[in-house]
């Protein structure tokens, strides 16, 4: 399982995960990334999202219709910047991940988890077993294809 200590985070990763920051839209690593695999918490290495739930939302950040497990994410009321939103944090490391909105695809439940790339690490499908995430392979529709 991949893990990082807080002192290993770069400036942007620290700003996002520890200071509730937001990275620029359309200028982040995973906003337009659709390779098969999982997205894990940058600090704890806990799996949070899969490419199966990722969709193109044109918001400039990676968007997912649901979390891999409700046990791994925490939703909190966020009243910053004069708005009321729902913040998403990692349960294990208490890192800020992004926000969840009710404007996602209706056919998948209507949610859009808008996640900062700086808060997650992508693990390609073909590396799941090697990196200790083999138990997640059944979450993929086409388990043999990359």
What does the model show?
There is one protein chain. With 146 residues, the chain is mainly β. The protein has one domain: Peptide methionine sulfoxide reductase (Metal Binding Protein, Guanine Nucleotide Exchange Factor, Chain A). It has one helix at residues 11-19; strands at 37-41, 47-50, 54-55, 63-64, 73-78, 85-90, 96-101, 112-115, 120-124. The strands form two sheets. The protein has a six-stranded antiparallel sheet with strand order 3-4-8-7-6-5. The protein is globular, with a radius of gyration of 14 Å. The chain starts with 10 loop residues before the first helix and ends in a 22-residue tail after the last strand. The model has no long low-confidence stretch (mean pLDDT 93). One of its GO terms (biological process) is protein repair. Keywords: Oxidoreductase. InterPro entries: Met_Sox_Rdtase_MsrB (IPR028427), Met_Sox_Rdtase_MsrB_dom (IPR002579), Mss4-like_sf (IPR011057).
| CATH top level assignment | Mainly Beta
Q: Give the beta-strand count.
A: 9
Beta-strand proportion: 25-35%
Q: Strands across the major sheet, in which order?
A: 3-4-8-7-6-5
Mean pLDDT: 93
Describe the secondary-structure layout:
Layout lengths: L10 H9 L17 E5 L5 E4 L3 E2 L7 E2 L8 E6 L6 E6 L5 E6 L10 E4 L4 E5 L22
Antiparallel strand pairs: 1-2, 1-9, 3-4, 4-8, 5-6, 6-7, 7-8
């Amino acid at each position: 399982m991949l893990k990082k200590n807080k002192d290993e985070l770069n400036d942007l990763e620290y700003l996002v995960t520890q200071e509730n920051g937001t990275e620029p839209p359309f200028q982040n690593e995973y906003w337009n990334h659709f390779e098969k695999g999982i997205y894990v918490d940058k600090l704890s290495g806990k799996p949070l999202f899969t490419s199966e739930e990722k969709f193109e939302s044109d918001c400039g950040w990676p968007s997912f219709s649901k979390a891999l497990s409700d046990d791994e994410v925490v939703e909190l009321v966020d009243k910053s910047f004069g708005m009321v939103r729902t913040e998403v944090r990692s349960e294990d490391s208490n890192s800020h991940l992004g926000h969840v909105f009710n404007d996602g695809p209706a056919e998948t439940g209507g949610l859009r988890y808008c996640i900062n790339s700086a808060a997650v690490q992508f693990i390609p499908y073909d590396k799941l077993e090697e990196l200790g995430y083999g138990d997640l392979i059944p979450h993929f529709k086409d388990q043999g294809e990359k």
